[in-house]
Design a protein that fits this description.
The protein has 332 residues and is α/β, with parallel strands linked by helices. The radius of gyration is 20 Å and the shape is globular.
Length: 332
């Protein structure tokens, strides 16, 4: 038998998630490999999924969990290309919160052998989301400014690190100055404490940090009035990308920012990008990010480590505020 994490009713993750035993997957067939999973992170989307408010429609029950993780190949079927037993891989299809899975090789991301396993477990979502939003919406150059909220999150940290690697400067909004302390060591990163919607105080802080230079890209993970707070400080013609609804409210933005100031608003969802992108593009993105992670350019904090049997404690930790990093779970 194997272990897996699932939920059979909707509610708070710390109450409904459970570790259950299940039959092992069938042996790998043509183009497939068997993987022993090692570490998996809990993301805000996981917490929202158990509440039935993520991805448009609630999933059918019982729902096996997990969209991220790292594992090691322990068996292969025929015709698996360059994959071998012992290789470290990241699966890009759900579910991943299982002690053992079988996947086709075209749903796997190979990893540099020197990569840190805990960091690799977090590769699929945070670094890729940050990298794509930095790459795809505005042609930023060294010295340009971008702004983001929830900057202390995994996505926010990765965005600041990737931007710095290209010489791009970032304004990083956090609810508490202490929450962004780790960002202050990133070249070109400025930490700004702010909560809520637009304000003269936020505008003054941004103008002071940038010396009045234009802010060309804004990232919003909160929605509600926080969207308008980002829009307020963007330059005319800038782009604002919303990629999260942590407030559980619709995005609020003053229409004048759009039709008078020419600000463009876009939305981004990592799962949709994976579905719509060519496999070669997906592999190229993750090969680049995986190497940056192995080289230490990308690094995310880990706030806690739990076993599958401790999933309720892990979920409670992940749902709490001021946790200071990702919560990881492991089968053993």
């Amino acid at each position: 038998m194997i272990q897996k994490i699932q939920f059979s009713s909707f509610g708070p993750a710390a109450e409904v998630l459970e570790c259950v035993e299940a039959p092992p997957p069938s042996p790998p067939g043509l183009g497939e490999v068997e993987i022993d999973m090692i570490h998996m992170p809990l993301n805000p989307s996981d917490i929202m999924m158990t509440a039935g408010i993520y991805g448009g429609a609630p999933p059918p029950l019982p729902c096996a969990m997990g969209r991220e993780g790292v594992g090691r190949i322990v068996a292969t079927g025929p015709d698996v290309g360059g994959f071998s037993v012992g290789d470290l891989v990241v699966p890009i299809t759900a579910p991943t919160w299982q002690s053992k899975i079988v996947r086709p090789v075209d749903a796997l991301l190979p990893l540099p052998p020197e990569i840190d396993l805990e960091q690799a477990a977090m590769l699929r979502s945070g670094p890729a989301t940050a990298g794509l939003m930095l790459r795809d919406y505005v042609a930023l150059e060294a010295g340009d400014w971008a702004i983001q909220n929830v900057a202390n999150s995994a996505v926010g940290t990765c965005f600041a690190q990737l931007a710095a690697n290209r010489g791009i400067r970032t304004l990083n909004i956090v609810r508490r100055q202490a929450a962004g302390a780790h960002l202050e060591d990133i070249p070109g990163a400025v930490v700004i404490e702010h909560v809520g919607g637009p304000s003269d105080e936020l505008k003054a802080k941004v103008e002071d940090a940038t010396s009045g230079e234009p802010v060309k890209l804004g990232l919003d993970a909160i929605a509600g009035p926080s969207t308008d707070a980002i829009a307020q400080v963007l330059a005319n013609g800038a782009t604002l990308v919303n990629y999260g609804v942590l407030s559980k409210e619709p995005c609020q933005i003053y229409g004048g920012h759009l039709h008078f100031r020419g600000i463009t608003m876009r939305g981004f969802w990592m799962s949709q990008w994976l579905q719509l992108s060519a496999p070669a593009e997906v592999q190229a993105l993750y090969a680049e990010l995986g190497q940056l992670m192995a080289d230490g350019v990308l690094h995310m904090a880990v706030a806690g480590r739990y076993t599958f049997e401790e999933i309720k404690d892990a979920a409670a930790h992940a749902a709490g505020e001021a946790r200071g990093g990702k919560v990881l779970i492991s089968p053993v």
